[in-house]
Amino acid sequence: MFEAQMQDGKIFKAIIEAIKDLVQDCNLDCSEEEVAIQSMDSAHVSLVAVRLSAGGFSNYRCDRPNSLGINTANMSKILKMLGKDDSITFKAEDESPDNLTMLFEGGKTTIADFDLKLMDIEAEQLGIPDTPYQCTVQMNADEFQRIVRDLQVLGDTCTISCGKEGIRFSVTGNIGNGNILIRSNDEQNEKDRVTITMDEPVELNFALRYLNFFTKATPLSSSVIISMSPDVPVVVEYPIEDFGHIKFYLAPKIEED
User: Fold this and answer.
1) Number of other CB atoms surrounding residue 195 within 10 Å
2) Is 90 exceeded by the pLDDT of residue 176?
3) Dist. CA 154–CA 130, nearest whole Å
4) Helix, strand or coil, per DSSP, at residue 113
């Protein structure tokens, strides 16, 4: 039996909204320790990894590991019926369940239950190497979303460079060029603090289209952590308070000479 109650249901709704444009079908991998999602997008350019610790749920039971195959668009349709203050309780039987039951509870009066048909999805778990990154930047998530949105007007490729000045986002396009530099600071308000840890300068090119998809996770966190090293995928991480994180991995674009 799998049963888990999330007191703040809109967190899970925000996770599905953040990944549904990248990932169509994926498994909710449930174990005693956590609920996890790991899936590549259809073009195999980016990877999504979600981790929700069992300790973040108000009630959690998982008798045996289970993979629950969901279609994110269908899950999103059901979650649109969730009230803004509702809790969600997930329930699934142990042996090859056909449905995932979701109970939405708002206050003492309203309980709605929905069954989402599950799918049999064969997905290979990728071993994500524990890479030591040359440059790690923690900054305001809203600011990162604004930068990506603004630069997309100019071009398709964003150059992210981390150096002594700070972290720079640059775009060269048909109508012109753009550069936005973010310097580190020691703001007391953690939300506005910019922390840069750098062993050596890094400069990589990324598709703005994918960075824009990643910023759909902004409602989940006040800050975003960007980790880069030469020739390896960038990691864009949104910490989820009390639960864990959602991480996006994106391979750098190789510029042809």
Assistant:
1) 15
2) no
3) 34
4) strand
What is the full DSSP assignment across the chain? Answer: -EEEEESSTHHHHHHHHHHTTT-SEEEEEE-SSEEEEEEE-TTSSEEEEEEEEGGGSSEEEESS-EEEEEEHHHHHHHHTT--TT-EEEEEE-SSS-SEEEEEEEETTTEEEEEEEEPB----PPP----PPPSEEEEEEHHHHHHHHHHHTTT-SEEEEEE-SS-EEEEEE-SS-EEEEEE-----SSGGG--EEEESS-EEEEEEHHHHHHHGGGGGG-SEEEEEE-TTS-EEEEEEETTTEEEEEEEPPPPPP-
Q: Under CATH, which architecture does the 2-117 domain have? A: Roll (3.10)
Q: Which of 59, 63, 68 is nearest to 88 (CA)?
A: 59
73 neighbors 116 (Cβ within 8 angstroms): no
So where are the chain's domains? 2-117, 135-250
* pLDDT at residue 190 greater than cutoff 70: yes
The pTM of the full predicted model, rounded to 2 decimals, is 0.92
Domain 135-250 annotated CATH 2.60.120.760: no
